[in-house]
Amino acid sequence: MTSALSPAMDVLNRVFGYPDFRGSQRDIIEHVIGGGDALVLMPTGGGKSLCYQIPALVRAGTGVVISPLIALMQDQVDALRTLGVNAGFINSTQDMSQRRAVEEDFVNGELDLLYVAPEGLGVHNTQRLLDRGKISLFAIDEAHCVSQWGHDFRPDYLGLSMLHERWPDVPRIALTATATSATRAEIATRLRLDDARHFTQSFDRPNIQYRIVPKNEPRRQLLSLLRAEHAGDSGIVYCLSRASVDKTAEFLSDNGIPALPYHAGLDARVRAANQSRFLREEGLVMVATIAFGMGIDKPDVRFVAHLDLPKSVEGYYQETGRAGRDGQPSTAWLAYGLQDVVQQRKMIESSDGDMAFRRNAAQHLDAMLALCETVSCRRAELLAYFGQPGGGACGNCDTCLAPPESWDGTVPAQKLLSTVLRLQRERGQKFGAGQSIDILLGKQTDKVTQFRHDELKVFGIGKDLRDQEWRGVVRKLLASGYLAVEGEYGTLALTDRSTEVLRGDTKVMMRREAPQQKTKPGRTTK
Ligand code: ADP
Ligand code: ZN
Q: Distance of CA 106 to CAs 15, 83, 98, 164, 168, Å?
């Protein structure tokens, strides 16, 4: 038998100890061993690393891996070394003597794999160093970082087009877990991968159940979820701010769920300790900002919960993709509310980026909102976003399991837009969602009296809906672009498209929100 084994299969069995390839690994690996260029799109956990590690071991010379994840290089290299692979890395965290030793190994042809940071390659020294050794292949990891319109652009990646000019005969393999078809095309162009074969593995993660719920009391809602469905499970909870990470971790711990915080504001040693506990121990919940998770390989993460809205569908997919790598049933749960939309729009508007940057960020946010507000299958929407349309209903997401009733919200939408319009036209004023809703509900608050908003024609015309429902109307209008949020205070403003609704040219279909679960009004979650 052994004599018939391909070199790739031999390395897979002997070095990595796996019996068989997964998905398209075999095709990709054979193609690169044969000297071809490849552009690989594979979901997180799909097994991208082997796609370049095995060819690097089979081909003569050193495989040079370009990765932006400097913090992970040491771990990756250590893991390879325990398998008997000669791996090394060069980056800014090293001192001179460590670096010299790695360089020497490379030049002497003693390295199978060399990890470098993209900024290193721009440096003449590194380029000259690479000329002194023999390179078997270039692997460009996280290749979507080259896309200026992606969500994770890194300018240093643009320089990587020079690999092809300087080493035209060395095969290149670019890998990413996140790229729409437009981004894929951009990667190919910018990296000069003109003749690369494209390998695209399905983005579907059938064992992950996607659920998106309206946010009321996020920590209480999370606690109910964990108690009801994930007692004793490992999981990750993402929050936007460091303060919210700390509070949530404390809240869970106080309620008997072992939880650790992780964010950039913590001491590096604490962070490392928390991370390694999460990886080693069972049943720990990691509460983190999105700083946590890149390259984390824990197979039995049973849930990923978001307490704040991700900035893009790409980010959402990447973060939720950390659940269920072992293929077992897992939950991706997101709570989102109006405040998220207001906050993120504010962040975009007050960012230092230019117009193009802001427009791009706004488009990413809009796509995320559309996913939240959809009345059809979440998975189908998600896959369509990544260029795999026509999936049909999946049967394993919240909208499939409990189809949301939709209702015609055109009249309420018109009432809300009229309120914004009247405030602007009659008073020259702009207010946030809260005040507009108070006006519609006919509430005599201090602010209503102060601004004489009870004299407006629209005062009290929206008593047929509850406050929660009005918030849903605002969210839907924001998600669909019929309404905008502006400025430091998150005030509401009409858009070019508002008239479509006001004139009755468009119907506004709304998700009926499940009645709130017995939460006590006014009760805060610590
Ligand atoms: P990605 O980079 O695509 O997120 P990794 O390369 O980190 O994924 O692989 C994810 C996990 O799957 C790792 O634990 C890896 O060892 C494992 N793996 C990859 N290929 C195989 C295989 N053919 N058989 C068994 N396990 C595999
Ligand atoms: Zn579905």
A: 21, 19, 13, 20, 20
Task: Output the six-digit token pair for 276.
Answer: 């390694």
pLDDT at residue 309, as a whole number: 96
Amino acid making up residue 51 = C
Residue 51 CA, closest ligand 1 atom number = 6
Closest ligand 1 atom number to CA of residue 16:
16
The number of beta carbons lying within 10 Å of the beta carbon of residue 77 is 19
Q: Are 172 and 138 a contacting pair, CB within 8 Å?
A: yes
Give the pLDDT of residue 108.
Answer: 97
Which runs of consecutive H residues, i.e. helices, occur in 83-200? 96-107, 118-121, 124-131, 162-166, 181-190
CB-based contacts of 495: which residues, under 8 Å, 6+ apart? 481, 482, 483, 484
Mutate which of 297, 300, 317 to test ligand 1's pocket (most atoms within 8 Å of Cβ)? 297
Q: What is the pTM of this model?
A: 0.71
Ranges in the chain, pLDDT < 70: 1-4, 295, 389-390, 488, 513-526
pLDDT in the model for residue 82? 95
Q: Cα separation of 293 and 149, whole Å?
A: 22
